[in-house]
Amino acid sequence: MTTSEKAQAHGRDEDIEGEKNQWKFRAPYKVHEKDNSFKSYLEGNCHCGRIKFHLDKKKPLDSKFCHCTTCQVLHGAPFGWTAIFDKDDINFTHGHHDLLWYDSMEKTTKHKLPCKVSCAYCRTPIMDEGKNKILMFPTLIKFKTKKDRENFAPQYHMFYPQRVVDVKDGLPKWTKMKEGEESELLQE
Fold first, then answer.
1. Using CA atoms, how far apart are residues 114 and 122, in angstroms rounded to an integer?
2. H helices present in the chain, as ranges
């Protein structure tokens, strides 16, 4: 695929190698080649397999279910399962040039934080990129053991009043992001 074809696949007219595309030299997109400090514990990929990545942490900083309407629409599901990592915790081993961005606030495909990141080919949501962290989607991870999967167990629900289905699982349910952020804890 030529540079122009990649730019067109990403919905951009500019040269993918150009000045506006410094994203590929920064976390989470830079490739950790010859970096002995990056330990690969878990692997994942998009549906078509063009995007592949490794995680160097066995457990996320946090894991939750999100019921916001944006997640419902963009994932085509009643809620999303997300896991928070530092940007340096992911290494794209294949296809990081085939990523597509979407700014859900401005409804543009520019790489502007925060943004949604997906495969440009199969459109599988890969993660949400914030200013300091990423929200990975654990359904993409190839868990090796039951313990690996348990490490990603959601701790709570957020934006629960926007839910389209009741979930009776005993987890805390917050009206917004989490406690301390003008969010209220709801009764199950």
1. 22
2. 3-9, 69-75, 146-150
pLDDT in tens, 72-96: 999 999 999 999 999 999 999 999 8
Q: Which token pair is 179?
A: 């406690």
CA torsion 66→72→78→84, rounded to 10°?
-30
CA-nearest of 102, 153, 96 to 129 is 102
**Angstrom distance (rounded) from CA 164 to CA 166:** 7
Q: Which residues of 153-180 are buried (b: 16+ CB within 10 A; e: fewer)?
A: ebebbbbbebbeeebeeebebbbeeeee
* Two tokens, residue 83: 């896991």
| Residue 51 to residue 46: CA distance in whole angstroms | 6
From the list 96, 103, 108, the residue with the least C-alpha distance to 26 is: 96
pLDDT band for position 187 (cuts 50, 70, 90): confident
Give the span between the Cα atoms of 111 and 39, in whole angstroms: 27
Q: Give the Cβ contact number of residue 67 at 10 Å.
A: 22
pTM flag (> 0.85): no
The pLDDT tens digits for 130-180 are 999 999 999 999 999 999 999 999 999 999 999 999 999 999 999 998 766
